[in-house]
């Protein structure tokens, strides 16, 4: 594993694609890890991830002009990562600002209906993903909180990462504090 970026998983995935390897999704993969236990820890983790993704994109920027598998990834994969990991999250708050503007200065009912329609489309997309993965739909109950709070937090984290990258500052690893609350599940006992 390279230590060139803070998002080593993104870095190795891009490197494998560029080398012509196939990276596949493993539906039944399992990992036991601790989630951040505080808002500050969540910020540090997401800040490291978004900054590390930008580092990986910069490191592999040559793939945009390469030939072969590297170039194919560069012309398709790299723009998609930029679009969905950087540009879209940075523009997401505009939806809320336009809605707020519409509520205050234009037609509040139409503005809220448009905003609600957008949330409905996101809910339907999430429900479809849950259906494909056979997940419990109850988790969708927190989607409004994700749209109102988490999305804004991630916008600020990404903005912070962009400023850090633009100024050329180096970000340390920022290791999360471990609480030891996660236990490895025990193997099921053999049935006789």
In short:
Helix content is 63%, strand content 0%. The chain is an all-alpha fold. It starts with 7 loop residues before the first helix and ends in a 25-residue tail after the last helix.
Polypeptide structure, described:
Residues 4-113 form the Glycosyltransferase 2-like domain. InterPro entries: Glyco_trans_2-like, Nucleotide-diphossugar_trans. The protein is an all-alpha fold and 192 residues long. It has one domain. 63% of the residues lie in helices and 0% in strands. It has 5 helices and no strands. Helix 1 packs parallel to helix 2 and helix 2 (39-59) crosses helix 5. The chain starts with 7 loop residues before the first helix and ends in a 25-residue tail after the last helix. 14% of the residues are buried. The model has no long low-confidence stretch (mean pLDDT 88).
């Amino acid at each position: 594993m390279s230590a060139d970026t803070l998002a080593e998983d993104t870095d190795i995935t891009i490197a494998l694609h560029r080398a012509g390897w196939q990276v596949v999704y493993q539906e039944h993969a399992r990992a036991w890890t601790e989630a951040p236990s505080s808002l500050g820890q969540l910020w540090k983790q997401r800040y490291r991830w978004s900054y590390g993704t930008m580092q990986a994109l910069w490191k592999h920027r040559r793939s945009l002009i390469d030939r072969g598998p590297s170039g194919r990834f560069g012309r398709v994969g790299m723009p998609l990562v930029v679009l969905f990991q950087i540009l879209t999250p940075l523009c997401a708050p505009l939806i809320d600002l336009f809605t707020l503007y519409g509520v205050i200065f234009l037609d509040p009912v139409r503005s809220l209906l448009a905003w609600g329609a957008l949330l409905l489309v996101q809910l339907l997309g999430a429900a479809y993903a849950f259906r494909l993965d056979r997940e419990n739909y109850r988790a969708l109950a927190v989607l409004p909180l994700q749209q109102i709070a988490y999305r804004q937090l991630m916008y600020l984290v990404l903005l912070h990462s962009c400023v850090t990258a633009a100024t050329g500052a180096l970000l340390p690893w920022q290791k999360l504090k471990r609480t030891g609350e996660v236990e490895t599940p025990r193997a099921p006992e053999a049935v006789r």
